[in-house]
Design brief:
The structure is a single chain. The chain has 12 helices and 15 strands. By secondary structure, the chain is α/β, with parallel strands linked by helices. The chain folds into 2 domains: 236 residues, Aspartate Aminotransferase, domain 2 (3-Layer(aba) Sandwich); 123 residues, Aspartate Aminotransferase, domain 1 (Alpha-Beta Complex), CATH 3.90.1150.10. The longest helix is centred in the last third of the chain and has 18 residues. The radius of gyration is 21 Å and the shape is globular. The model has no long low-confidence stretch (mean pLDDT 98). The site of pyridoxal-5'-phosphate has 14 residues, from helix 3 and helix 4.
Length: 377
Amino acid sequence: MGKHIYLGSPTMHGEEFQYVKEAFDKNWIAPVGFNLDELEKQVNEYMTEGSDHPWYTCAVVSGTSALHLCAMLAGVKQGDTVLVSDATYCATAFPLAYEKANLVFVDSERESWNMDPAALELAFQKHPETKFVMVAHLYGTPANMDAIREVCDRHSAIIIEDAAEGMGSLYKGRKCGTLGDYNAISFNGNKIITTSMGGMVIAKDKATRDEALNLATQAREPVVWFEHAKLGNNYRMSNVLAGIGRGQMPHLYEHRALKRKLYDTYKEAFENLPVTMNPIPDWCESNYWLSAILIDKDCKVKPMDVLQAMLKIADAEGRPTWKPMSLQPVFKDCECVHVEDYPVGYDLYDRGLCLPSDIKNTDEDMELIIKAVKSCF
Ligand SMILES: Cc1ncc(COP(=O)(O)O)c(C=O)c1O
């Protein structure tokens, strides 16, 4: 048997290490320095290109902390109702729970697997007091943001965009990370580009970016002694790790193309199987961060069977699609608003499976994975 095939793993190019080394050489081993400045500039430029106004960035320790800052910046407070994507990773919801918000989960639509605008409308009808919506882009594929924005505007609600998985994706030509009122991306080791761990707040004006920085650096008042008028966090990214991101940014499009190649290879190989790939709607250019399959309803094969076959035949990691938040024990008392009788997100979880999506997979690795999947049907 060959190597172990990961669901995803970091892909380094060499420049990353040069920038990290430079941080050591110049002794900028701190949450401040030239790598941080450069990484923020690179992402500013990326987000601003093609946008009708400039964007501002604040690098932090994780996507989770970036989302927490977004929630604080948006003004989410104890008891506030927030409508949140149900089919997502826990870190979409956790930062809202840190602020003791009242979380109401919103089901997915089949077209994108993301928040269903119709379920969102129903959630507003049930919870007219709602002022905030947190929307995630699953597996890098953008949610239907125009439809979601239209519903939110009608109910005067603020959108927080969890673009943790969506760096490099576009919705109708607009970049994920610029689609909400407050936006966050992740640079975790499993993401399309990485700083090992890290994240960023993407702000639409400089004042918001400065406030994010202040909240990420213990909310110090601008005086020489330590003065604090409000609660802050110790969330600022290290200049050492920013060096990794600085070396990764130029490779974003290259990584996206390789991710797409994996998706297309799976799609073609599984054409005659009773499965469909995770959908990529016409409204977007996805970064194809994770490829996933959905097993047909009338097929007896279960995601766990495929998972085991991949491990046994190809020594390859798969993962069930994200277990919806409203099925998680930690959120057992939270409601999930859905328009179909059985929530779409639950159905996707029952039948879905994420496939190895590491851009370093060779043709032989892919053949082995495909063989393993086919062996189940
Ligand atoms: C949808 C989603 N939101 C938030 C996060 C949190 O990012 P991080 O791991 O950088 O804290 C992740 C990834 O881990 C994610 O997939």
